[in-house]
Every structure is written in C-alpha cells, then in structure tokens.
Amino acid sequence: MAASPGNEAHLAAFSTEAVGPDGARRTLYLHTSPEFAAKKLLAAGESRIFDFARVFRNREHGPLHALEFTMLEWYRAREPYAAVIADSLDLVRLAADTAGAATFSFRGRDCDPRAEADRMTVADAFTYHAGIDLMATLNDDGEGDVHALGSRARRSGVDVSDNDNWADIFSKILVARVEPRLGIERPLILYEYPRCEAALARATPHDPRVAERFELYACGVELANGFGELTDPVEQRARFEAEMDEKERIYGERYPMDEDFLSALAQMPDASGVALGFDRLVMLAAGARSIDDVLWTPSP
Fold it and tell me: pTM of the prediction?
C-alpha cells in the first residue's frame, strides 16, 4: 500500500481505507509499481536494486493486461539507460533459453528472441509506419500541438475525436499503426519518446523535446518500459501536477503527491531503471494466447 499510486493521467489504481487504533481513517492505494519505494532506496544510498513485485492496476483487463500481475523492476545508480536496455535484452534471451523456445509467437507475429535487436526512435517509427512527422507537432519545450498531430493522424487514416488531446492522438497512432509492427522477426528497442509522454524520464542532452525513455517490443508486444530517471524534484512536481490536471479533466479524479518521494529525488543520484512485465514475457516464451493463460489465478 502506498500514499500515492503514481501521478500519470491514465494510470488507474485500487484504493482502500486504513483504520488506525484510534479509529482515524485514511485512504491508501495498492501500488501500481514499486518505483517510488525503489527510488527512495536509491536516495538512501543503494546502487543496484530490483523488486519482483505483484502490482495492481485498475481499468486494465484483456489479452495483454490483468488487474493484478507481476512486475520485475530494477535500477542502476550512476549508469546510463543503455545499461538497462542491455539487461532487458539479456532477460528476453534468458527466458527463451529457459523455456526452450526457438521463437516467440503472438497473433501470427514471430520474433527470434536471440537475434540482435533493432533500434528505432519514436519519431522514426511514426514516420516509417504511419507516415507522420511527429517532431513537427512538438514545440521547443516538448509540448504537443493537438491540431497539428490531429490533422496528420486523420490523413493517415486514424480516427480522431474532437475531444482528443495530443496525448490521446499520440496513443491512438501508436496502438493502431506503430505497435503491431514492432519486434517482428527480431526484438526492437523504441526510444526517445516525446518528453510529454515520459513524465518520469529526463530530457535527452541533444534535444529537449524528447526524453530518455525506451520500450522493448517482441511480436508487437511491449515487454519493458525504462528511463534515464528524472531527479529534479521541481520539474517532477510540475509534471505530476500537469498529469493530474489531465486526469481530473478526463476521469474527474486526481491522486495525491508522495511528498517523501519528491523529497528523496533531491538526494537521488543519476540512475537508470526499467520495469518488465514478467507475465507477458512468460506468455511469449510459452507460446500462450493470452496473459490469462500464464497467470496462476487470473483476475476475476
């Protein structure tokens, strides 16, 4: 349980009520990730840590999503995010070797888990797979122009609503046109996300519009999501506030800030971290049709 489950607009948590010995009541949340706790440990001096955690996310259930699942999350202090990218690819190969899987397959898409990974920036992926110049829709601060992206999405055949914001349109393009084509034949690292799509990642040194965020794909399935971690508490608070404003606009609710976490960021060293969906990796290694097929107790 946590004081805050995270402050991303589309992240939905389970809440509960803690009752103290004096009868006082307060709201706590089942954690959606061990990230905040892990970063507090980095701030306290730990340098290489992992958590093999059960995590809980509401509004998520389908062939690739479960309300309760297992996440492997780890951090390396004072190491670049290239280090955790390498870790992630090693784990994919290890899973294949352990399962005796020559290939991964999902919905007719195949991937050789031992092949050298392809690498593609998000901007290049949007250009190549959707014919959209993503960078032309971002201003110098990394914020997106909804009208510019919306018009490009419609020309590309993606259905866009008048109520969609830039992030909504970005997600629709990614899901409909880009993700299904990633990690085919060999794993793929998709990297340098727009900064407005990377609330916990620092900006890249060569372009402030994009951030040190990557995702690992195989068979069109996202397996891992990692960052060069943001350690500026002032910028982090501002990003969280913006995310919560968006959450309130869409869902009519907002989550509290974890003040201990924000304080810890001021003491946290530069670090890289990644969260890997363990059940998804098992699903691909086992050749299963759905994440429910590899969960011992699927969500009710």
Answer: 0.94
Is residue 299 scored above 80 in pLDDT? Answer: no
Give dist(CA 87, CA 281) in Å, integer.
14
| Domain ranges, ordered by start, for the chain | 15-294
Distance of CA 266 to the CA centre of its chain: 23
> Up-side HSE of residue 125: CA atoms within 13 Å toward CB?
28
What b/e string do you get for 118-144 counting C-beta neighbours within 10 Å, with b at 16 or more? Answer: eebbbbebbeebbebebbebbeeebeb
Q: From 3.40.50.1980, 3.30.930.10, 3.40.50.150, 3.40.50.2300, which CATH number describes the 15-294 domain?
A: 3.30.930.10
Half-sphere exposure of 257 (CA within 13 A, CB side): 18
**Among the residues of 53-187, which ranges form H helices?**
81-99, 122-130, 146-155, 166-173
Residues sharing a CB contact under 8 Å with residue 296, sequence separation 6 or more, in sequence order = none
Rg value, the chain, Cα: 19
Give, in order, the Cα–Cα distances in Å from 298 to each of 142, 146, 176, 228: 39, 38, 27, 33
User: How far apart (Å, rounded) are the C-alpha atoms in residues 187 and 92?
Assistant: 9
**225 contacts: CB under 8 Å, gap ≥ 6:** 213, 214, 215, 216, 274, 275
- pLDDT band at residue 214 using 50, 70 and 90 as cut-offs: very high
CB 16 within 8 A of CB 31: no
Count of beta carbons in the 10 Å neighbourhood of residue 50: 16
Q: Please determine, for residue 300, whether its predicted confidence score (pLDDT) is greater than 80.
A: no
pLDDT-based confidence at residue 89 (cuts at 50, 70, 90): very high
